Amino acid sequence: MTIRRGTKVRELITGASAIRGVPHVAGVRTTSGEEIRADLVIDAMGRRSAACDWIVSAGARSPIEECEDSNFAYFTRYFSGQRRPRRTGRALTPMGLFSILTLDGDNDTWSITLYTSSKNKAMRALRDTATFHRVVSACPRQAHWLDGEPVTPVLLMTGVVDRYRRFVVDGRPVVTGFAAVGDAWACTNPSAGRGLSVGLLHAQVLRNVARRHIDDPGAFSREYDADTESQVGPFYRNQIAADRVRIAEMTALEEGMPMPAPNPVMAKLLVASSQDADVLRGLIEIAMCLALPQDVIARPHVAAKLAELDGCQLPQDPSIVDRQRMAALLDG
User: Fold this and answer.
1) Which residues of 189-219 are buried (b: 16+ CB within 10 A; e: fewer)?
2) What is the pLDDT of residues 171-193, one digit of tens each?
3) Fewer CB within 10 Å, N or C, the chain?
4) How far apart are CA 202 and CA 210, in angstroms?
5) What phi, psi does 24 have (nearest 5°)?
6) How far is CA 63 from CA 11, 57, 166, 221, 224, in A?
7) Which tens digit of pLDDT belongs to each residue from 18-42?
């Protein structure tokens, strides 16, 4: 492997077509004009990849592209200390009008993120450090994560779009000799921290298809598309569905309306995971993108545990911050 730091790609270069009427990517041209030839060009440039524009400039049909803004705003502060906080709750916890995300870092650092609806203007007060700390202090399982030395102010991030691209249209590749992997293929907002997990899964799909079809560009493009859709696509679509539900909950609370009813199966799965180790392992598999929810709940033991909760009144989390209390926390 040769790593060339500081080299930037300007465009794709094409060669003899492997499928009549479909451009074949034979390499890239750098900003200095150098041509680098390859049997396969892999786009791992992340969510801001310009490859779709390059593909069209190479004379190909435009790939399918879908994008939407989940309308989340993220307020994050980083801390440092000799002792990392002990985790007493989930890494990601819904708290009503906001969710709290606590993550370990390296070099004795960690972060706390509060994310909420970007349309809720009152929540912009979270940029104030005192307000941010007041709200985190109201979260009983996460308040001790404040026990460190702040190393940043409260950092704001908005406008993170969910994007999906597909490079086979109507059963026909738009180009051959090219593969997008990870966030360059599809990306979601960072609330669930799934980008790395999905990227690693997608890289394995790419490796497996390349082993079988590296010498057949047409077969490679079609099979890589099919395996991406069947093995990786469901993780993207499940996350989009979950985000839509979460933003609907936040919007309802902001407007003083009842929250939409939770997904009954997932609600039971969360309760059962606190009572049974095998169900908990299944929930962790879902979070780590090792298994899909529909696969976990179909397991006989998990299905039996969920059935035990049929007709039961599921407990409500007493730590949820309601609209009135949230207003008081924001006002100080």
Assistant:
1) bbbbebbeebbebbeebbeebbeebeeebbe
2) 999 999 999 999 999 999 887 88
3) N
4) 12
5) -110, 125
6) 16, 12, 6, 13, 15
7) 999 999 999 999 999 999 999 999 9
Enter the DSSP assignment of 142: T
Nearest to 70 by CA among 163, 194, 191, 161: 161
Structure tokens, 246: 């979460």
Q: Which residues contact 241 (CB under 8 A, 6 or more apart)?
A: none
Q: Beta-carbon neighbour count of residue 19 at 10 Å?
A: 15
What pTM was computed for the model?
0.88
CB 10 within 8 A of CB 50: no
Tokens of 230: 């069947």
Task: Give per-residue pLDDT as tens, 76-100.
Answer: 999 999 889 999 888 889 998 999 9
Strands 98-104 vs 92-94: parallel, antiparallel or unpaired: antiparallel
